[in-house]
Specification:
The protein is α/β, with parallel strands linked by helices. It contains 27 helices and 26 strands. A hairpin with a 4-residue loop joins β6 and β7. α12 packs antiparallel against α13 and α18 runs parallel beside α20. The structure holds ligand C2E and magnesium ion (2 copies). One magnesium ion (MG) binds next to β22.
């Protein structure tokens, strides 16, 4: 309890106003209280109160010493003293805060002859003080919380000051993590950055800084870049930049930068990328890589018509494999790979498609005729393969059938490979060991495609596009996490069409956007209905989106229209895109994906591991899930390459703190082979096949693994 008040408090009391007074006259020997004071102290004002003790009885016991002391001090010679005290009600509960002032009047000899006391009510003032004190305490707690988080963070955190172009503040880890001294850190962002970052990365870094300076609060700009270490090694940094301080006119004056050393992740990615793109046995590029190289070659418009594909298939390989065993077969494939490489030029790509199928992609120089050159290469290959192959002193003769296709105006990687394959079959059908050039008449499935296109159009106009649902399950407790919607179309006879073909025809004919939307609309409505049931309130929906669909303007609005119409929570939706798709879409489309993510929509990479160089997107897109392609799962647990790929991808997801769906899990052995990770989910026949909603089998069983019985 305070017994004397600060000047500020005095002033406060004066402004509040005196509410009561009393007087002690030592000459007249009287003690009088004003009515108001008595009233405040809960006393009757009938003139009976003359006793100081009676008034004092209502003062809070803890505050009484303060008053006594103040009184003693004026009696002892001080002219003015003050005290704060609380007045209590009859029950002894404090009800008001008072401020008392004691003033002494002395005679000429200095003896106190009279004391006048005034009292003011400062209850509200004290309350305000208390609130202020509490606010202060909370603020300093929040501040120390922030400090603690920043200090304990495993990331390097620093604040970049835009005006001075220097680092304003950095946590302990910042220098340690980046491998530079504190002094060097302080210029990370200043002029010295150009020594530390490769030119191209510096440009991107500065662009990110600019973007962060113009971003709204709460927005995070991400980038990855290299840092050249003093010892010459290269480090990969992941950076997240966000506006931190603004000036009065709302301009960003400081940017908060969170940095993490992702060199390990990048190394894993590079290894993963190599493994995903090369054939283990021969070391040649695989199907994915050749497809991507083809796509890139076709993109260089001026080269159109100057790319040829030779599809090579060994004749009689199966016989060798069956009669001499796999090791011999493998040796034959390795020698074949070497001979094919020797028969082509440096710029050409030789790839193994799988089994005994190889593809040679020939980039034809401007001056040469692609058709002629392709035939020359084919003949060279035939000649190279004509010598017997020696394995363990046994001679093996293998010949090769080759299908040639030269790119035209509207060729795609897919169509080139398909057409070359078709030509190869034609060559084989004429008798092995020869080559054939593709002609449209050879396309066996043109008719099939027309049929499928008609069926898609028919289904769409009759609103008969169906969605089947496949469960996505958390393997830790076999609980249902969500469902993936997969398109299903039946033809006029009621036969289910092959979904892969339907999607591919829809892609080629531009029907895919409408098809995607039909599936999305139907499944969103269905899942919203399921979520209305308490036991499935958390059920998630995953839909597939084609690149064309995402690239078409208004993707963001179209997604929202369906969400609004179905009442599906955006946070219940995940959009799946394939890696290769992400390579194709423009910045505007990527922006739509980012905006959707901000609304809570998840973004999954489908068929992860089958794409090319797409891992870069992990850093720039807000991806929430990786889906490991079925082709890797099918090799589990025996195939080492598949095993490594699956394990590394799950590790990558764990590092990124995102979910990982393993697709195509068909057996318990495959399930057991997977590493444990909390964010791991399973989608595969082991837990359930895609089902129509009506059958409800997807949802009706508590343990979905029992569905395999169906
Ligand atoms: P996806 O998105 O990777 O879907 C998974 C595919 O794997 C489905 O084939 C599913 O039936 C199949 N699958 C799942 N578990 C297993 C398993 O344990 N074993 C085997 N052998 N297969 C399994 P589906 O339904 O034939 O679809 C093929 C692909 O067509 C999809 O691959 C997706 O890329 C595409 N697709 C399907 N529906 C749509 C759609 O509405 N829009 C678009 N744009 N693409 C779609
Ligand atoms: Mg999918
Ligand atoms: Mg997939």
């Amino acid at each position: 309890m305070t017994s004397s008040a600060s000047p500020g408090q005095l002033k406060e009391a004066q402004t509040i106003g005196i509410v009561g007074s009393w007087e002690m006259d030592f000459v007249a020997r009287t003690l009088t209280f004003s009515d108001t004071l008595l009233e405040l102290h809960g006393m009757p004002d009938d003139g009976r109160v003359t006793d100081y003790q009676m008034v004092r009885a209502r003062v809070h016991p803890l505050d009484r010493p303060a008053i006594s002391q103040s009184l003693r001090r004026v009696l002892g010679g001080e002219l003015v003293t003050t005290a704060r005290y609380r007045i209590c009600d009859e029950a002894g509960q404090p009800v008001r805060w008072m401020y008392a002032r004691f003033k002494a009047f002395q005679d000429s000899g200095g003896a106190v002859i009279r004391i006048v006391g005034t009292v003011a009510d400062i209850t509200e003032h004290v309350q305000a003080e208390e609130e202020l004190r509490q606010a202060h305490a909370e603020l300093s707690q929040a501040h120390s919380y922030q400090q603690a988080v920043i200090t304990a963070s495993p990331d390097a955190i620093h604040i970049f000051d835009v005006g001075s172009q220097t680092v304003f503040r950095a946590n302990r880890l910042a220098p340690e993590l980046i491998g530079y001294t504190h002094a060097m850190i302080s210029v990370m962002g200043g002029a010295d950055l150009d020594r530390l970052l490769p030119a191209e990365d510096l440009l991107r870094y500065n662009a990110a800084l600019q973007e962060a300076r113009h971003a709204p609060d709460g927005e995070v700009v991400q980038l990855r870049h290299r840092v050249l270490n003093p010892d010459g090694s290269v480090q990969w940094m992941s950076r997240r930049l966000t506006p931190f301080q603004r000036s009065e006119n709302r301009e960003v004056t400081q940017v908060l930068i969170v940095s993490r050393d992702v060199s390990d992740v990048v190394e894993v990615e590079e290894r993963l990328e190599h493994a995903a793109l090369h054939d283990e046995l021969t070391g040649l590029p695989n199907r994915r890589l050749v497809r991507n190289r083809l796509e890139h070659a076709l993109q260089r418009v001026e080269r159109r018509g100057h790319v040829a594909v030779l599809f090579c298939d060994l004749d009689g390989f199966k016989r060798i494999n069956d009669s001499h065993g796999h090791p011999v077969g493998d040796s034959v494939l390795v020698v074949t790979a070497r001979r094919l490489s020797a028969a082509t030029r440096a710029g050409d790509t030789v790839a193994r498609m799988g089994g005994d199928e190889f593809v040679v992609m020939v980039e034809v120089p401007e001056a040469e005729d692609p058709g002629t050159l392709a035939q020359v290469v084919a003949e060279r290959i035939e000649a190279a393969m004509s010598d017997p192959i020696l394995v363990d002193n046994d001679e093996h003769t293998v010949t090769v059938s080759i299908g040639i296709c030269v790119a035209e105006e509207n060729s795609t990687a897919e169509s080139l490979l398909n057409d070359a394959d078709t030509a190869m079959y034609f060559a084989k059908s004429k008798g092995s060991n020869g080559h054939a050039v593709f002609a449209p008449e050879l396309r066996r499935d043109t008719i099939g495609r027309d049929h499928i296109e008609r069926q898609i159009r028919r289904a769409m106009s009759a609103d008969a596009v169906q969605a089947h649902f496949q469960p996505i399950v958390n393997p830790l407790d076999d609980s249902l996490y969500g469902v993936e919607a997969l398109v299903r179309i039946t033809d006029s006879e009621g036969t289910l069409l092959d979904t892969g073909k339907v999607v591919s025809v829809a892609e080629q004919t531009g029907l895919i956007t409408a098809l995607d939307e039909a599936v999305f609309r139907r499944s969103a409505r269905q899942v919203a209905a399921w979520r209305a049931r308490p036991e499935y309130a958390q059920l998630m929906l995953t839909v597939n989106c084609s690149a064309r669909n995402i690239a078409q303007s208004g993707f963001y609005d179209r997604v929202h229209a369906v969400l609004a119409e179905s009442g599906l929570d955006p946070r219940a939706l995940t959009i799946e895109v394939t890696e290769t798709v992400l390579l194709d879409v423009a910045d505007a489309a990527l922006n739509d994906l980012r905006r959707l993510r901000r609304d809570g929509v998840g973004l999954a990479i489908d068929d992860f591991g089958t794409g090319y160089a797409s891992l870069r997107y992990l850093a720039t897109l807000p991806i929430t899930c990786l889906k490991i392609d079925r082709s890797f799962t099918s090799g589990l647990p025996e195939d080492e390459t598949c095993m490594t790929l699956v394990r590394t991808t799950i590790g990558l997801a764990e590092d990124l703190g995102i979910r990982c769906v393993v697709e195509g899990v068909e057996t318990t052995e495959q399930l057991i082979a997977l590493p444990r990770y909390d964010g791991l989910l399973i989608q595969g026949y082991l837990y359930g096949r895609p089902q129509p909603a009506e059958s409800m089998a997807v949802l009706s069983i508590r343990n979905p693994r029992l569905l395999t019985a169906s």
